[in-house]
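Summary for the funding panel

The consortium committed to producing paired sequence-structure records for every protein in the target list. Below we show the first two records in order, beginning with the earlier of the two.
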Amino acid sequence: MNDSLVIAGKSYRSRLLVGTGKYKDFAETREAIDASGAEIVTVAIRRSNIGQNPDEPNLLDVLPPDRFTILPNTAGCYTADDAVRTLRLARELLDGHALVKLEVLGDADNLFPNMPETLKAAETLVKDGFDVMVYCADDPIQARMLEDIGCVAVMPLASLIGSGMGILNPWNLRLIIDQARVPVLVDAGVGTASDAAIAMELGCDGVLMNTAIAKANNPILMASAMRKAVEAGREAYLAGRMPRKHYSADPSSPTSGLIGS
């Protein structure tokens, strides 16, 4: 079955996107990403060295761009101007790379997105030729606005970044999914494999995560579990679940022809 994830015209086999922060070292980072099967890896430009600091270890030596699609992100940015400036730097460092992840935060404690600044930054970046994947609130109206601006994917949070609380509002996610003409990926809040499977069963096109893998007791094993969960959730969505029936007996085996009947 050919069921590729297509973002900005490029096809990917894996629907699991992973971050590169919070691991104990670069070796664990690469091992976990390999176990996850992810092809797109997101990198916080303000926190990771991808060439801007020539005297420090370079993450791209561990995650070469000819093997992975590097997705620079604006983690740590609180204004549209900062986000735009950060991604323009990333484009220079990555030789004109256009695919980026935009996030503009509104609060340092809960890391909830600042949607007015996000919309402002998205408009500037799209006009500047970027392919923008965007972290956003689970608001179907604002998700549609981002799509209308020209973002190539919308990425609503399932719950707060790093919380591990899972999907707190599946109804809003379904509203966003049902109206979207671009991929919808859950970004933030996934804590364990069942959360990823639920996101995919709802109809999300993919899941992005970092903390759920990096802060697990065994990040490599959790990365493998997340890979399987995303695949299983996608297959279940495509298969179509049976209808829910409350207090309605319907035996799975026929009752006609039973002995004694």
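The next record, for a separate protein in the list, is shown here:
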Amino acid sequence: MTAPGSRQSPANRRHRFDLRSTTLFFVFLAVVVSVLGLAARMVAGTVERRPAWVAVLVVVGVAGLVGLRRRWHVLRSARRAAAALDEAARETADELEALAIPPQRPAAEAGVRYDDLTPEEFEEAIAALCERDGCSAVELVGGAGDLGADVVAVTPDGRRIVIQCKHYGDSHRVGSQDLQRFGGTCFTVHEADVAALVTTSDFTSPALEYADLCGIVCVDRESLQAWTDGTGPRPWEAATESRAAGWGKAPAES
């Protein structure tokens, strides 16, 4: 039988491996030191032979570093300024958009209780009815010095309608004086194609006679509710029907 060969212990293998690594490390270190020494000698020789060049190179290098640093600060400041301008532009655009879009009036509801509204809210509700039924350029002009016009709009067929709103109780009927004051301005001052007086109450007989004579549409509580519910004519439609029937005709003699 052949005697088995001697085997090296793991400890010896690790020892040989560590010696090799250490040797390689010192060789690499020596190469690095030699290269650094050679570079230092070259730099020293260049300084001795061309000191002006070295000075120029040093100045250029320092200036380059300072320029890079300043450029970085400039770029960072420019980015911040651009971000601030972008934010300001967005805020300005939002403000302009908010100014360009008029505030939405509350939508007209079929079940609205006009008696529970204030006079100002009643005018807004009438304006909302006009918008709902296709009128354009709806404008609230009621207030001091309105000369009888509370709501002005353009009907779907292109006519200018001027509406006066009277938020009265059941016991306070619209009289002929109210109609006369409105009739004196609705056509001549406001240049209405259609003039209407809308009330939460009713009209006296003299008021209706004056309105029929002047061509003013009277919308009482019942007619207003029908307009709101969509079961009755709009004021501009009632004006067309009344014009077709003949405003201001004298009653036929019996």
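Regarding this second record: The chain has a mean pLDDT of 79. The first strand starts at residue 136 and ends at 140.
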